[in-house]
Amino acid sequence: MTESVRIVDSADVSPNAVIGDGSSIWHLAQVREDVRMGVNCIVGRGAYIGTGVVMGDNCKVQNYALVYEPAKLGDGVFIGPAVVLTNDTYPRAINPDGSLKSAHDWEPVGVTIERGASIGARATCVAPVTIGAWATVAAGAVVVKNVPAYALVAGVPARRIGWVGESGHPLTPSDADGVWICPASGTRYIENDGALSKENV
What we know:
- There is one protein chain.
- By secondary structure, this protein is mainly β.
- The chain is about 0% helix and about 30% strand.
- The chain contains no helices and 26 strands.
- Strands 1-4-7-10-13-16-19-21-22 form a 9-stranded mixed β-sheet, with no helix packed on it.
């Protein structure tokens, strides 16, 4: 870690974590061993970043979010307040014989979040799932299956209710079939077989 990394005194950051230049880790946050965090990341108050989690550049993990290993976050990912990224498909405190489970009794599985995607406040992503690039998960949603790039999903369980552009605004349909437009930027997107891509200019 370099002098350009800001870690407040009450944060608990493992000396084995790699924190990129310009990153900030705020009060009561915990960053575990072998975390690899890119440049210019922000980890908010009380957030937890699990052992070996990989974060790209320019990520924001808001207050009290729980990012359990082995999650992988691409560049520019936004994790809202109190979001949970789980890592145990079949959680149990004990084995069938009544003994307390240890790290050797289960195989952690992770959530992968691709570039530019956003997870709204108090949403839960149940591993293993992948959230596609620039997708948005609405606040309070529970994600139990993969989310396509640019999808807007909401509900319990989360379902696609629309599309969003790279600006984060919901897209509006154009007069042309399968063409969506960002109301903020005017960028056009093409829908084909349930997938969305930005129009090549």
